[in-house]
Amino acid sequence: MKILRDYYLPAFKSSIVDAGAQSVMTAYNALNGIPCTANKFLLQDILRNEWQFPGWVVTDCGAIYDIHINHKYVSDPVKAVALSLKAGTDLNCGSYFRLYLKDAFNQGLITMEYIDQALLRIFTTRIKLGVFDPPSMNPYSKISKDVVDSKQHQELAHQIALQSVVLLKNKNNVLPLQKNIKSVAVIGPNANFCRFGTYSGKSSIQITPLEGIKSLIPDANITYSQGTTILETKLPTMPNNMFYTLDGSPGVKAEYFKGFDIKKKPDLVRIEKSPNISWEFDGTPDSTVFEPNFFSVRFSGNIVVKKSGSYKINVNGIDGLKFYFQGKKIIDKVSDNYSHTTFKTSYLKKGTQYPFSIEYFEDEGWGEVRLGISEIKEGLIDDAISKAKSSDLVLMVMGTYDYIESEGRDRQNTDLPLDQKNLLKKVYDVNKNIILVLINGSTISLPWADEHISAIIEAWYPGQSGGKAIAEVLFGDFNPGGKLPMTFYKGIKDLPPFDDYDIRNGRTYMYFKGEPLYPFGHGLSYTNFKVDDVRLNDTKFSKNDTLRINFNITNIGSRRGSEVPQLYIEHKGIKKLKAFKRIFLNQGESLKSYMKVAITDLQSWDLNENKYVIIPGDYSIHLGTSSRDLLFTSNIKLLSH
Fold first, then answer.
1. Which of 23, 266, 560, 640 is the most exposed place for a label (fewest CB within 10 A)?
2. pLDDT tens-digit series, residues 139-150
3. CB count, 10 Å around CB of 276?
4. Using one digit for the tens of pLDDT, what is the confidence trace for 206-223?
5. CB 463 within 8 A of CB 196
6. Coil, helix or strand at residue 603
7. Would residue 138 count as lying in a domain?
8. 221-225 and 183-187: which strand pairing?
C-alpha cells in the first residue's frame, strides 16, 4: 500500500485533481488480487471519495470479459458486469453491458440506482461538451478543420522530435558530423521506416531517417541496407487469389458455430473468398442465425504462393484464435482480446498447396480475422556488410518496433534484438566508424555497443518528422539536450523477476543499487555548461514552507544548447526527483535561475495512521544533471509539528 500511495498514485492524482481530467479508463490487470475494472477501492474509495472525481469511468476494451475469463474472479459474465458497475465503471468498451446488464438487473445483482448513476455521469460530460446543443451554441464547432495538420502543428511535431533526442554517448566529440562527408551507409531495420509506436494517427508527413539524411547532405553518396528481417505485426493482406479449398476451388471453407463449441456440428457452412473478414462492431456471419459477438468459426483450406521463396506470414485476430500451418500449431490464444503473431515459413514453391486452418472465437465487440504475407529478402546481412565496407561512415538505425513491443506483446528481455546485435557486430568488423541511432519506446540494454561504438543517440519513436530531426541532430543543425526519463540497465540480470512488483527490490533509479548503463536523467550535449553559486533559501523547514534552490548556469562551450538542472531530495538513502528545468543558452550566456519545492510534496504514506505525513529529520538536497551526476549537495532539516 505504501508503494502504491507514494509511487504509483501521485501521477494519476495530479492528472485528476490538479489538471481536472474528466474521464478515467480502468486497466486490465488486478490490484492486490482484485481486477481493476471491479476494484471498489480504486474506483470508489480513492477516485471518487478521496479525490472527489466528478467525471465518468470507462473500461479498457474487453476488461469486463477479463474479470471472469482471464482473472476468473467470478463465474459468469452477468456477475462480472454487476461487479464492475457497482465498483464504479460507467461505460463498457465492448458488448458486455449490452449483452448482460439487463440480466444482472433481472437477477437482482444491481439496482436502477447504479444504472442511473452511470448515465448521469456520462450525460453530464456530453452536456458540458455541447453535444446536444445546436452548432451555433457550441464553441467547439467553430474550430476550423484546417487546424488539423496545419503548418504550426507540423512544426510542433518537428520540435518535439528534436527536443526529445538524448545524446547517450559521444566519445572524442565525434558528433556532430561534417556535412562534407563523401559516402555514408545507412543500415538497420528502422532506417527507412517512420516509427510512430502503436495507437498513432495517420500523418501527411512521414520522414524516415534515411530520407532526412539524404535531404540534409544531398551531395554525399548514400547507400541503404535493411540488414535484418523485420517481423511486422501487420503485413500486406494476403490476397483472395492465394486461397483455395481443400478440393482446389477458389476460396476457403468456413464452418460457423453458435457459441464456442467447434466440436459439434456447424450451424452454417459456406465458402468464403478468404478468411480476411471483419464483422465490425456487433457483427455476425448471419444475423438470422447468430447473436452478435457470440459465435466461432473454423476456416480451412490451402495457401498457394505465386512466387517461390521464403515468406513472413502474419496472423491477426480481434479476440481469440488458433492458427495451424502445414499441420503445425503456430498460435493458440483462445482467451485473448487481441491475438497476433508473425512467423517465417520454410521455402514455399510456386503453385504448391500448403494447408492451413483457423479457429476463431468472437465474444467481445469488434470481430476480425486477417492474414498478411510478405516475401523475405535474402542476403540482407551480406548486403549491409558490402555497403559498410565501401563507405566512409556507417549510420546504424536500430531499436524496436510494434512487433517487438506493443499492446499485448511484451518484450522478452531488455536487450537490443539478437539479430540486430549480430548485425551491429558484423558491420563493426568491416567498418568501425559507426554512429548508432536508437528508435524505441523503452529501455534498451546494449553494453557491447556502449563499449565499442563511439557515439549513440536515443531518438525514441520520434513521429512524423523524426527522420528530419535525427539528421539535424547528427549533423549539428540542432544541439541535443534531452534527458532519459528511465534507467538504461546493462542487462535484464540487473532487475528482479518480472512478477516482482515491489520497486523497492531494485527497480527504478530510486532503488537500483548497481551501476546502470545510462542513469535516469542522463543526456549529453555538443556544448558544456557550468553551474555555480548554488544557494538554498534556508536549512530548516516547517510543513507549510517552500524550499527554493537558486543557482547560476553558464554555457561555456562553443554553441547554443540546453541543459536540464535536476533537483533531487534524499531521505534515508532514497533519492527522488522533485523538480527540473530546461534552460536554453547561447554560447557564453549566463542565467540566474531557481527551482521550488513545497515541503508538503515531501510527504509519504504512513501505514499506521493511514494518511500522508511529513517525516521530520535530516534530508539531503542534490542539484545535478542526472540522478548520478550531482553538482551540489547540502543538508536540511524538517521540523516536527
1. 640
2. 888 899 899 999
3. 19
4. 999 999 999 999 999 999
5. yes
6. coil
7. no
8. parallel
